[in-house]
Design a protein that fits this description.
heterodimer; A: 150 residues; mainly beta; Immunoglobulin-like; 4-stranded antiparallel β-sheet; elongated; B: mainly beta; 3-stranded antiparallel β-sheet; 0% helix; 44% strand
Amino acid sequence: MFDTMLSRPQSLFDQLESLQRLLTRSSGLEGATGSIRSVAYGAFPEINVGRTPASVEVFAFAPGIDAATLDITLERNVLKLSGGRDSAIPKSDAKTQVYAAERPNGRFLRAVTLPDDVDPTKVEAKYRDGVLRISIALSAAAQPQRITVQ
Amino acid sequence: MTDRNAQTPAKTSDFSERTVSPAVDIFEDAGGITLLADMPGVSKERLDVKLDGDSLSVEGRVEFEGLEDMRALWAEVNVPRFRRTFSLSRELDASRIEANLKDGVLTLRVPKHAHAQPRRIEVSAS
């Protein structure tokens, strides 16, 4: 009856798409050197890291998570992020049929090596729209300074 | 249900038009179908749920503040736009779709028409 609603996980388009994802994402940022702790595409949450003149900004794309259960640690310049997400799918029984279960669930742990010049005592974390944004200030010595001519 | 082939518009060279399909969970019970889509970084204002005939599409743009003077060091998320299209079937009541976005997860509830819901037929003993 619901043949149009059926998902076909092994269909050609899915395979093509996952291949395309692998190609575009496994390299991380084009040209950037990968860190030993950064694994290829498929990890949850996905992480972007940026740098401003005053801080290093880490974006973890972790939708549907209770921010209170997130565990964030920063030891020297290694940032570790762990937490969990429950599956939204009810237990399959005669009354419930599951057509797609793509969203990752369970425990996760990710670690990111940050540049050496961050100040681990100045960290701020915010969770908004499913993205955890962690700002780590650069140490004073690493920030651009204006030099006055005497 | 999924029509993933429709994700990338013809102009693939234009970076701003590239999209990725959000991961979804879809399940059906007696009353209808529930769809959850991971769309982290998409706010309510930048989310678009559209119904065109029996084609239901969700689209959302990822945006952050304070990126002006930021240089990327590492990026696993390269395409800041989600898009995915699903085709509905006739017994679903598209006029009563409910959508809810919380913490980057879009939940859509598509109820079935009342007449399409399973009914128990009472057998009267004579």
